[in-house]
Write a structure and sequence with these properties.
By secondary structure, this protein is mainly β. The chain contains 3 helices and 14 strands. The chain has helices at about 1-15, 20-25, 105-110, and strands at about 30-40, 40-55, 60-65, 70-75, 80-85, 90-95, 125-130, 135-140, 145-155, 160-165, 170-180, 185-195, 205-215, 235. The protein has a 14-stranded mixed beta sheet with strand order 7-8-9-10-11-12-13-1-2-3-4-5-6-14. It comes from Breznakibacter xylanolyticus.
Length: about 240
């Protein structure tokens, strides 16, 4: 019972931080995003601009390199990817792609108590304090094997670390959230580093950096108005 009380208190505190946040933000958040992937000694960098519309839960991303394209997702899991150079568009629908599963959605809406684990079927296994940090351990549903459980570590009610472990106890993934951007409506990690371990000797390092974060009336809404041309060729 103590474990669930801790989680309940955490949820209530986080929820109280985000009351009417969509209204205060004028339902818009934007950021410049840099994705870096290091694998086998090679670094790949992808840059984009991301916009979130709180009224519709729509997210629009404009990627600049290595190839320009646009990606739109909504809360129904409908994802469209458009390549302007080729004038081609692909369409996919899957609940996994829902904008409500995006990192920006969780943090902007102050839904950081479980980071989406609950919606994936995870259940709280235990809670404890370690070095003044709250550690919540979530047990994975059977269909998500080989993941067995996930630890989420909080500092000042904000997640700073997640650790995914397999059925054999080995660490599958580590995620660090840091350099938080703070405003009256929400807190957002400007840097996220993810280390994935697979069967090969090398791990995969992913670092995502958010900069130039704008909210409400500061947001340039031009990208929100982007529409895929009617004559775009559909591809699988």
């Amino acid at each position: 019972m103590k474990h669930y009380c801790c989680v309940l208190i955490l949820s209530m505190l986080i929820a109280s931080m985000g009351v009417s946040s969509a209204q205060l933000l004028n339902s818009a958040v934007s950021a410049d995003v840099t994705h870096q992937i290091l694998q086998k000694g090679k670094v790949m960098t992808v840059k984009s601009q991301t916009l979130y519309d709180g009224k519709s839960d729509k997210i629009v991303c404009h990627y600049f390199n290595p190839k320009e394209f646009y990606k739109t997702v909504n809360n129904k899991g409908e994802m469209r990817i458009y390549f302007p150079k080729d004038n081609t568009v692909s369409y996919t629908q899957n609940n996994h792609y829902s904008s409500n599963n995006e990192l920006m959605y969780y943090f902007v809406n102050n839904k950081v108590d479980d980071l989406g684990l609950k919606s994936e079927g995870f259940k709280v296994k235990s809670t404890n304090y370690k070095d003044d940090h709250l550690v919540v351990t979530w047990e994975a549903p059977v269909h998500l094997m080989p993941v067995k459980e996930v630890d989420v570590v909080f500092e000042n009610y904000l997640p700073i670390y997640s650790e995914y472990r397999g059925v054999d106890g080995k660490v599958l993934k580590k995620i660090y959230y840091y350099q938080y951007f703070s405003c009256p409506e929400f807190n957002f990690p400007q840097k996220i580093t993810e280390v994935s371990f697979d069967a090969s000797p090398d791990s995969i390092l992913k670092r995502t950096t958010y900069s130039n974060i704008k909210i409400g009336n500061q947001v340039d809404r031009t990208l929100f108005n982007f529409e895929i041309p009617a004559n775009a060729k559909k591809v699988d």
